[in-house]
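ok so dumb question maybe but i'm new to this and my supervisor (M.) told me to 'just get the structure for Large ribosomal subunit protein uL18' and walked off. so i did the thing. is this what she meant?? sequence i used:
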Amino acid sequence: MANSKRTLFQKRRLRVRNHLKKHAGGKPRLSVHRSLKNISVQVIDDVQGRTLAAASTLEKALGLVGRNNVEAAAKIGAVIAERAKAAGIEEVVFDRGGYLYHGKVKALADAAREGGLKF
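this is what came out, is it supposed to look like this??
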């Protein structure tokens, strides 16, 4: 019986998350979610179970609704870096989920690094 794409994605996502939890050292997690139309990112404190900062292309104020391309991902990365720094967060661990680290996910990560987040 062959694994479905969804099952393989979930296995990859859990494998990445478990590796991060081992090596996080109490740092918040920068978690990325990508859909066909939008991209969103959250800074999550796993110890307290709270979201510390978030950004998404669904926010009308950013003017990126329905845009899921590399430019939109880079803008979201810059916004999350700004919001995380405003919340007093300098270092995070990057949780790409089950998504491969290229294209939109890489653009988001690079923009967040340029914005001042360390990971």
